[in-house]
Amino acid sequence: MLKCIIVEDEKNAQSVLLHYIEKTSFINCIGVYESGLDIPQETLQTIDFMFLDMELPELNGLAFLKTLVNPPKVIITTAYPDFAIEAFEQAAVDYMVKPFSYARFLTAANRIRTATTNSEDSEYIFIYADKITHKLKRNDILYMKSELDYVAIVTDEEKILTLGSLSNWLQKLDTSTFIQIHRSYIINTNRLKKIKPNTVLIETTEIPIGSTYKSTIKKLFN
User: Fold this and answer.
1) Cis before residue 99, ω within 30 degrees of 0?
2) What's the CATH code of the domain at 8?
3) Distance of CA 37 to CAs 58, 61, 117, 170, Å?
4) What is the 3-state secondary structure (H, E, C) of 151-163?
5) Could you tell me if 151 and 169 are in contact, meaning their C-beta atoms sit under 8 angstroms apart?
6) Taking the CB of the first residue and of the last residue of the chain, which one, N or C, has fewer CB atoms within 10 A?
7) Is the pLDDT of residue 119 over 60?
8) Other beta carbons less than 10 A from residue 150's beta carbon
9) Looking at the structure, do residues 85 and 107 belong to the same domain, yes or no?
10) Does a structural domain hold residue 148?
11) Domain end: 117, 137, 162, which one?
């Protein structure tokens, strides 16, 4: 059974979520909080996921999520559709716009169950871009490049441009495999072919090494 909490300041919305959770055999709610600031740290470390409202007192849902070093999986709940892109950038598993039916709730719950219990999902990453959620194998990613307010995620087959920053992506990736070698580039070391004094070869693409990253690369590959 998956353990969750509800972070929601509206009593009616709390009741709806609790009712839906009671109807769902694989979810157990262990707490309801009106603000992210009320949640004990030990609770955040033990839950599988949270239902997180966007409109919260003191600190909105996504702002609270950004304060967490190792956030649990999240289903965003909100009356507004406008924050979907930012939510998926923060690795939300789903985004439910109120009012939502039990069928819609169950779809989100099953996505959480799949992401939590299926070990194969650790091989994949979800990328939201241009109103589409892309599911990519992590090892298919060659490199990521910063392009102004966007990050280009490059594979053998395609280039996906998504809002965000390299620093945010580094928090989501396995840093033993993905490393930053330049202020504008993160590479997948599994796809590394050659290391030169000032560049690396990722499959057939040559990528520059930033001067401040040379010592890090030397330590890693020596």
Assistant:
1) yes
2) 3.40.50.2300
3) 8, 10, 28, 25
4) EEEEECCCEEEEE
5) yes
6) C
7) no
8) 15
9) yes
10) yes
11) 117
CA atoms within 13 A on the CB side of 90: 26
Q: What is the pLDDT of residues 176-197, one digit of tens each?
A: 788 999 999 999 988 999 888 8
153: nearest Cα among 128, 132, 181:
128
Structure tokens at 8: 């929601």
Nearest to 5, CA basis, from 24, 25, 21: 21
Name which residue leads in pLDDT, 62 or 185. 185
Q: How many structural domains does the chain have? A: 2
Same domain, 19 and 109: yes
pLDDT tens-place string over residues 126-152: 888 887 888 888 889 999 999 988 999
Amino acid at 17: L
Distance of alpha carbon 35 from its chain centroid, rounded? Answer: 21
Tell me: pLDDT of 222 over 60: no
Q: Is position 98 within any domain?
A: yes
